[in-house]
Amino acid sequence: MTVVIVEYAALPPRPWKNGRGVTRILFDDADATDAWTWRISIAEITGTQPYSAYPGVHRGQVALGPGAVDLVINGRNTVLAVDEVIEFDGEDEVTATPREAGFLDLNVMTLRDNWDSTVQVTGAPTLSAGPGGPTALIALDDSSTLDDRPLARLDAALLGPGTTCALRGRFVAARLRRN
After folding, report:
1. What global pTM score does this model have?
2. From 42's CA, which of 32, 71, 118, 141 has a CA 20 to 30 Å away?
3. Which CATH number does 12-111 carry?
4. Counting runs of H as helices and runs of E as strands, what totals does the chain give?
C-alpha cells in the first residue's frame, strides 16, 4: 500500500501566484522549476481577495471555514458554506470574501489536458484510490484516523493508485485520473 501523510501544521506558507494571499501545498507533482500538472493546497483568505488566474486549469474548492465564503465568479454571486464543493475554470474571474476571520479553503487544481478530478466530502468507512491516479484525503475532524493512524484536522494523505484504506471521521476526497 502506498500512502504519504503530511501534517498541515508543519507546512510552510507560500504566496499565491498573484501575491494577494498565502497557501500551504499538501501535494503536487511539481518539478524543480515549480511547474505542475496537479496541485492540492489549503489557502488562507483574509478580506476580499481576487484569485490568481490559471488558464487551462480545472479548479475544485471546498470551504473549510470558519463560516461561509461569498464568491463572485464571472460576475455571478455564490455563497459557499462549510464543506460545500464548487468547481470552476482557472480562466474564470473569481473574488472571495470570507464571512469570518481565519477562513480556509481547499483547492484542487488540475491541468485539463492531463487530468480529470473530482472532489467530495465523505464519511465512508473505507476508500479506494482508482487505478488512474492518486487520491488525496484531507481530515476534517481532529478525531479522524486513516488505517488507525490518528490525524489532526487538515492533515492529509496521498493514496497511490489502487490503494484502499480504513477511515474514521469526515474527509475531503480529491480523486485524480489521468486523461
Report:
1. 0.95
2. 32
3. 2.60.120.10
4. 0, 19
